[in-house]
Amino acid sequence: MFDWIMHNKTWLFSGVAVSVPIALAGWLLSRKNGGNIEQHAHGEKSPNVNTKGDVDIRYGE
């Protein structure tokens, strides 16, 4: 395994050098887009709620 890494280190680490900054930029941009809930008015007293993840709804205390 170590011999394979040493033999292929050029293309292996050049791929890592490209993919890590792209993944980091994507993560930062996704965090910048705001919270997890978007709410839009859709008629009189009838909200339309869209989420970007899990939602935990609890009634009462």
Can you give the helix content as a percent range? 40-55%
Mean pLDDT over all positions: 76
Low-confidence stretches: none
Enumerate the strands of the largest sheet in spatial order, edge to edge or round the barrel: 1-2
Number of helices: 2
Q: Structural class, from secondary structure content?
A: alpha+beta
Number of E-type strands: 2
Number of domains: 1
How far is the first residue's CA from the last residue's CA?
57 Å
Elements, N to C (H/E): HHEE
Give a quick account of the main beta sheet: strands, pairing sense, barrel closure: 2 strands, antiparallel
Summed up, what is this model?
The protein has helices at residues 2-7, 9-32; strands spanning 37-41, 47-51. The chain is of the alpha+beta class and 61 residues long.
Q: What this model shows, in words?
A:
This protein is of the alpha+beta class and 61 residues long. The chain has one domain. 49% of the residues lie in helices and 16% in strands. It has a two-stranded antiparallel sheet with strand order 1-2. A hairpin with a 5-residue loop joins strand 1 and strand 2. The longest helix has 24 residues, at 9-32. It starts with a helix and ends in a 10-residue tail after the last strand. The mean pLDDT is 76.
